[in-house]
Amino acid sequence: MGSRMLRWQKKAVAILWVGLLGMPFLAGAKQKAMKRKDKTACTEREIQRMDCQVNIGRLRVGIYHDKFRVDDGNWIAAHDVPGYVEGVEWKAIQLKKIGNRNFVEFQIWSVPKGETRISELMWSVVEVQGRVATPHLNELIQRRRQVTPKELVQGTPSAKEIRKYHHDPMEKFGLRPHSGKIEWRAGAHKGVL
After folding, report:
1. Tens digits of per-residue pLDDT, 63-81?
2. Domain boundaries of the chain, sorted by first residue
3. CB contact set of 157 (below 8 Å; sequence gap of 6+)
């Protein structure tokens, strides 16, 4: 036994070095194997709960009701969700990397307004650089009107089976790289970021 160390002794020494130096000697291989996959969009369930985590590489964005948290691996910062007021509905949230720039896209239905109960789907784009979040866009892409009980006719399917809203057609919208810049489009409106 003398100079030869037993297997458990080698592990104990390695664990001691990890603890003293703070370097993951043993965990290094496991960390590479367990590398997080990119998740760029919120699921339907997360949308309903208004609680979502998306990530690309080291950049993680956590959205909860009226706030979103940006964690780039070095800094963590909290920001307001654009256009949030009590009673809004999320439709979609997506994290996109275009070139070397990162964007969070929010699609949020406004609270129904007026006698006709019309709500608007707003497309908001926020650029994330480190811990700084810069709002760029807030564009209307669709309207919907809530169906009233008076509009339900006898002999029709139950209220659960009927759509709760009448939707206008959705405008074409999105971001795309073009000549080293990023173009955006929302219906007839367009520009460069």
Report:
1. 998 999 999 888 889 999 9
2. 1-35, 37-192
3. none
The 10s digit of each residue's pLDDT in 10-50 is: 666 555 444 444 444 444 444 443 466 899 999 999 999 99
DSSP 39: B
69-78 contacts, C-beta under 8 A, 24 or more apart: 70/128, 70/131, 70/133, 72/128, 72/130, 72/131, 74/130, 75/130, 75/131, 76/131, 77/131, 77/132, 77/133
pTM value surpassing 0.85: no
**Secondary structure letter of residue 164 according to DSSP:** S
> With the C-alpha atoms ordered 22, 23, 26, 32, is the resulting torsion angle positive or negative?
positive
Query: CB of 145 within 8 A of CB of 116?
Result: yes
In angstroms, the CA 167 to CA 72 distance is: 38
